[in-house]
Structures are given as C-alpha cells and as structure tokens.
Amino acid sequence: MKILVVFIIFSISQVLTNPVGGNEDEPEVQQTSEHSHPYGGPINLMKFDEHENVIIDEDSLERTFNHPLVKDRKIVAVSIIGAFRKGKSFLMDYALRYMYANYKSVAFPDNPLTSKTNWVGNLEEPLTGFTWRGGASRDTTGVVLWSDVFLDEQKDPKTKKIEKLAIILMDTQGLFDTKTSATDNSRIFALGTLISSVQIFNLNDVIQENQLEYLHMATDFAKFAMKQHKKYSKGSKNYKPFQTLIFLMRDWQNVVDFEYGNQGGAEYLAQVLNIDPKQPKTLQDVRKYIKESFDQRLCFLMPHPGFEVVNNNNYDGRFSALSEDFQTQLKDFLYSLLQPKNLKKKKILNNEVVGTEYLEYLKVYFEAFQSNEIPKIDTLHGITVRKQYDIVMTEAFIEYQNILGGITIDIQIGDQWKEKNVLEQEMNQIHQNAKQNAIKIFKDKKKLGSEADEKKYEDELRAKLETKFNEWKAFNFNKYQELKTVDEANKIKLSEMKNETDIKIQQEQELARIEREKLEREHQEKTNILEGTIQEVRNKTTEEIKILQAEFNKTQIEAERQRQLLLDQLENEKLQIKKKAKDAEIQLKNQLDSMQQEMRKKEELIKKEIEDKKEEKIEMLRIKAEERKMELERQTIIEANRAQIMAAQREAEKERIQEERSIRKQAEIQKREERKRADREQREAFQLFQQQIAESRIQAQREEREARERSDRQMQMIMANANAKPKEDSGTGTIWAVVGGIAAASLFLG
C-alpha cells in the first residue's frame, strides 16, 4: 500500500512535468548507460590552401547527399560560426550525443533509441566527435560536416502527410585568428549562412557593435554569392533570404537583468537590436539590415562552464566536470534546438529542398567562392578608417564650397574691364584661402589610421578641391566673357550710330555752305537737333548697360535668398521631426511603465499563491506521515515485536523522506508551470487591457451621443409646452422654459 501511494505521487509529478511524452520529453541526467559515436566522422567539405584558394571535397558531397536514404528527404542543416577557441566544436559534440540518443541515422537506421531519456549518458565519458581541444590555437579548418546524416519522419501540419527529413550537423573554422584573412573569414561566415537552415553565432559575454557590423558585411557577402545562381531573380526580394540565426552568448554574467536561457536571451536581443531614433544612422541601418535578412532571430544566454574546466589543460569534455548551471542550460539549449518540433527545413530561394537539390545548390555556391568574381573584403578597421575620413573630407569640402559661394568678384574698374589674367589671379587667391581653411579643418580633426592613411585621404581631398575650383573658375570666366561681349557690342553700335550722325552733319554743312545766307537760322536749329539726338543715344546706351548690370546683381541676390530659404526650411523640418520623436518616446515610456507596474503586482500575487499552496501541501503530507507513524506504532504494540517495530519505523522514515523529495520536486515543477502561466496571463491581461480601453472609448462615445439625443428631445418637449401656454401666462412660460433648459443641461451633463 505504501509503495503504491509513492508510485502514484511520482507518476503524477512526471505527468505534470512532461505532458506531451515521446521524443520531446526533456531528458534527465543519469549515470546508467554509456555513449559513443562509432557511426560517423568529420569531413572537410571546404578548406583553404596556402594561397587562399578554395578546395572542395566533391566526392564526399556526392556520397552524402546522393545516398538512397538522403537524396529524396528534405534537408535540415544546423551549423555553428564564431571566433576561434570559443567552444564551438565542444558544443557540436554534445549535439551529436543528443542526436544519436533521439534519432536514427544513415549509418544506424535501426537505432532502437534506447537512450533517448538519458542522452548525456555516462557523466565520466570523454567527449568525442568533431575535433576539439583547449588552448589558444586553431583546430577546425574550413567547413566540416558530420558524415553520418540523421533521419526523422514528421506529419506536415498543412498537408497531413508524412515528411521524411535528413538532418546534418556542421562545424566551421574559427574566425579572427592570426592565419586567416578578412576575406576568408567573410567567405566562411557567408557560406555557413547560405547552406544552413539554423546558424548558431557563438559569441562571448555580450554582443559588440563591431560583431553586428561584421554580421552585416558577411550577410551581404552571402547575398552576393546567392545572386550567382541562375534561378535568382528580382522577385526573390519579396521574402527574407536567410532563415534562423541564434546568438549563443557564452560566459553570460549579467544574470540580474537577463536570466540564463531562451527567455532572458530574447529580452537581451530585443534590447540590442532595438532601433532608436537617437542612434547614429549607421547603427540603425545595421539593425534594420539584420532584421530584413533573417526570418527568425533568437538568443540563448549560457553560463560559465566552471573554472575546473577552464583551468584544466587536460580536460577531455566529460559532463561531470561542468558547473551545475552550465549542465542545466546546455541540456535546455540542445533540447530547444534539436527536438523534432523545432527542426527547421532548409529553404533556398524560399523553396524547401531535398538532398539532391541541396547538393546542386552547394556546388553552385562553392563554385562562386572558388571564382575571382567574389569581391575582396577589407578589414573592419579599414572600413572604419574609410568611413571617418569620408565624414571629415565632406565637412572640409562643404566649408570650401561655402567660402567660394559667399564671395562676389568685381569684373570692372570703373568703366574699364579687368584683364583675364588679373581675374585669374584674384580667383586663385580666393581658392588658396578657401583651400587652406578646408585643409586646416581636415587636419584638426582627430582620426584613426596611420600617417599613410592621412596622406592618402589629404591628397584625395586636395584633388577634389582643385576639381571644384576649376569648375568655379570656368563658370566665372564664362560669365565674364558673356558680359564683356554684350558691352563691346553696345560700344560698336554706339560708334556706328556716331559715324552715321557725322556723315549727316557733313552733308548738312555742305548744303549750308551752298545756301548759307538763306538757311543760316534753319541750319543752326538742325545742328541743335542733331546734337540732342547724339546725347539721347549716348544716354540710352548708358542706361542699357546699367540695366544689364542691375539684372546680373539681382540674379545673384535671388539665388542667395533661395539658398537661405531652403536651409531655413530644412532646419525647421529637423526641429519638427525631433519634437515628434521625443513626444512619441515619452508616450511609449509612460505606457511601458504602467504595464510593468501591473505585471509586477500580478507576479507578486502569483508567487504568494504558489508559496501558500506549497506550504499547505507540505503540511498535509506531514500530518499524513504522522498518522501512518501512529498506526505503525499501534500495530507494533499489538505484535510486541521490537525488531519489527524498528524496521517499520525505518521504512516509514524512508517513505517520508521520499515523499518530501517528491513533493519538493512537484512544487518546483508547479512553480515553473505557474511562472509560465503567469507570463501567459500577463500577455493576455495586456491584450485585454487594450481591448477594454477600446471598448470603453466606444461606450463613452455611444453614451455621450445618447445623452445628447435625450437632451434634444427633452428640450423640444419643453419648448412645445411653453409655446402651448396662453399669451397672458407669458411670464410663467418664460420661467418654465428656463427650468426646462436647466433640466436638459443637467441631463446632458449627467
């Protein structure tokens, strides 16, 4: 009877812990069975020779993906990428243990899966599989595939048909070592991204900004290689090109703000990838690019494995040496990554692929990386240096343009035009002054890079300034030539008119000499008229020159005014955008604060409820144990057998201890369930809160509308009654109208 009760309690706790059953049960570490991987080994699919050429193992590719058990199955590809000597291969070896305990494989299709509830196996067993070791030098090179492909069958939720899957695990060469170029680092990262349905980005401690920039660059590199495929088209931009990216944060320390595991990782990643309007545009662009490139972005926070492991050069990977926290989180991570329902089928160009199709795409990608069409990748330092010099050169160039644009050149001295060489000397002097200011701005800024970098970009700036000066000088010379040509044409016209007038004067003088006495007065009048005409022509020509000069000055003033208006308009738009962003940020912050307060209150209530239930259940079990103990004592008195009494007491004490352990375990399980339920209720409460706000607004609007309608009807009735009174009762009618108005107003306000 006692054994039956204990068994029932234990069974209930197991059901509460694992309600689904099957392969998705989370295993518990025991020390009963042993493990190894005799069915496969690592294959170097791709590596680099001493000249950075790509070497492909085509025979292994053909043998693996044209295998009868693989070629028609849909592919699930899991790979890991990250800095060298950070535990990538170590993690993938434990992934192999999980896979051999939970799945069949090509080399072992009849695997009975007897260890699926104990995938860790012997805690003292050394770790085997992908090559790994401690230290500071590189071990894995290129892209390494585990030769034994794992097999699974699942029901497709849409078609309800059974789908056959082939699961491959890949390790990659560590990045950023002293032997690998920036281009090869990017090729490894890009290739892993291209051929994986799930890529693990193995990082240490926290996500650095330069790591996000490198991810951006490598992903862009992968997109470039993807476009080499003949099936790629512009329509491919309608979906995200890559699938799942998992940031695996090793040696996580900030447990106070973000707890270990998936939940803390999701919160941390949301904070890192959040796009803040106050961020520089380059940081916003990186985050936007990552979100647009990967269909799913996850994060898992892993603890430190323990100093017993880190400080031991002879550590062989045995599970027992790892810290307790690391053991727990390692099992949680591999369970969430590799359990059947979480497997991600590989998509290429948004289509799921089988083994033979996957092989063809691999060949295309490998050929792309072997060709010289793939661009060389600069180091992050070189990119940073180039970006900062671009910014400084732009600032100096704008200053140079502003100086040239703010100066008006005099092209005349009085009525005389300046010589072209004089104008050129003046413009050269203006250019030298403006260039000196621009170079000073360039040199005064603090910059990264070597002296050679500064010399290179200074020469580039000087060349750019000279080009701009030549354009400006040519523009001014063209204007000078146009105005001078107009002036010379006017002078020629004036000279021609003067010559014509002189000829007429000579003719008139000749006539005057013939008839001098007869026409002396008439001759004098005509002479005066002609002189007046000459003066009028001269005045008219002078006025035309002044008008042309005034139009030229007016054009320059209008251009400057338009430029200033555009600058003022741009500044006003910037101020409005900043104000709107600030208001939106304050509103969002207030909403988040309110939600967090509600969630904290609810969490405290749930914690209190769990503690109360836990204490109540322990007290009930304690009373039950006391009752059994008293029953045993009564039985022992009747039997009068001291030896049996002691044995019964020991048995009761043993059962009590087992029950307490079971209760504590059940309480922990219930606490986790309550925590999950609390999270779910918090989300539902927030959704309900939003729904209630919307319904309250609609209800308030409806009540306000109904109140207005009632007020209008009451007012109409009162006014009708008032109009129906006799004229002699006009005073009383006025009073009733006032009373009715007050009543209607009260009803409306109510």
Automatic annotation (TrEMBL):
Region (Disordered): 21-42
SUPFAM superfamilies documented for this protein: P-loop containing nucleoside triphosphate hydrolases (SSF52540)
Keyword Nucleotide-binding: yes
GO molecular function, one term: GTP binding
Signal peptide: 1-17
InterPro entries in alphabetical order: G_GB1_RHD3_dom, Guanylate-bd_N, P-loop_NTPase
Keyword Transcription regulation set for record: no
Coiled coil stretches, renumbered: 497-706
Name recorded for this polypeptide: GB1/RHD3-type G domain-containing protein
Species assigned in the record: Chironomus riparius
Phylogenetic classification of the source organism: Eukaryota, Metazoa, Ecdysozoa, Arthropoda, Hexapoda
